[in-house]
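Each letter names a residue; the fold follows as tokens. Both lines appear below:
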Amino acid sequence: MQNLLLALAGVTLGTLVGVLPGLGPATTVALLLPLTFIFDPVGAFVLFAAIYYGGMYGGSTTAILLNVPGETASVPTTLEGHPMARTGRAGAALATAAIGSFVAGTISTLVITFLAPGMSALAKLVQPAEYFAIIVLAFVTVTSLIGDSVIRGLSSLFLGLAFGLVGIDALTGQARYSFGLPQLYDGIPVVALAVGLFAVAEVLFTTCTPDRSEQVASLRGRVGMTRDDWRRSWRPWLRGTALGVPFGAMPAGGAEIPTFLSYNIERRLAKRRKERGKGEDEFGKGAIEGVAGPEAANNAAFSGVLMPLLTLGIPTSATAGVLLIAFQIYNIQPGPQLFAQQPALVWTLIASLYIGNVMLLVLNLPMIRFWVKLLRLPEPV
């Protein structure tokens, strides 16, 4: 019963954390580390895992409603989710994000249950050359999101690389592009950059256009998903899951690359369907596929992150790094022997993922009616 209550508390807190831009699950887990000493290791890690995947979902709420991504992995969701909200389909966007998170989380947890040792052995074969290829693939994907303008895409890519070079060089220890400011030695935080690009821009645009409230359409149709929404969403859910699990398991992966990859794939498939006369390309105007795929990839990547952490002791994200510290605090060494030495911890943690996914769905589907009311608030507020 204690573990069930901790899982419920974790998904609730994680959802709230995800809604707050800039905080994130890694910071939350780090802040809660001292408070979990009263629990046994099993309960503590159930709480941490629930916070993690609750935070991955919560970032989509403000991305859809306010054009403010709660997490960097929620950036692709803003591209289609917010246009859907502005045309009165916020309920459908939030519903496909919630159900897609549940589908991806359940499938990826099944993958952990049966394939974790094998996939971790495969991840060990990935060498620097493969990491370089993955990063190049990510660059190509992000560049192609800009559209048909190659100049704009390459300019944005090199501008992003310039921001990424700020800080201390890992090989030489020399400061790069810090202009003598100690605050820049750790680089420019990605979350701060994303919030600046989206949230600050949204605030300035709202301030400069006081009559913008007329552009927000009233909610139309049912709050949840229609039959057509289900038909258009289930394939992106599966494709996003297939991208999120392997990329989450790679040290060069994380949740950002598969979400952008998923968005790009759905965008190209929509363009092909339009060319064949089998549908319309709604991307840029509020395509539900652009929300379903990235959100599934986002949550599937979480389970992928757990595989190398549990079987190899290798963290592949910031939150996984904090979880590794938590393992060390409890004097537990994750690695190949963890499944044999701590079976109660491992299998209770995996079981909590199944239960937490259900809790996340039950918690957030009824909340959609509450979240969409944010759109009725006056824009200045």
Notes: The chain has a mean pLDDT of 78.
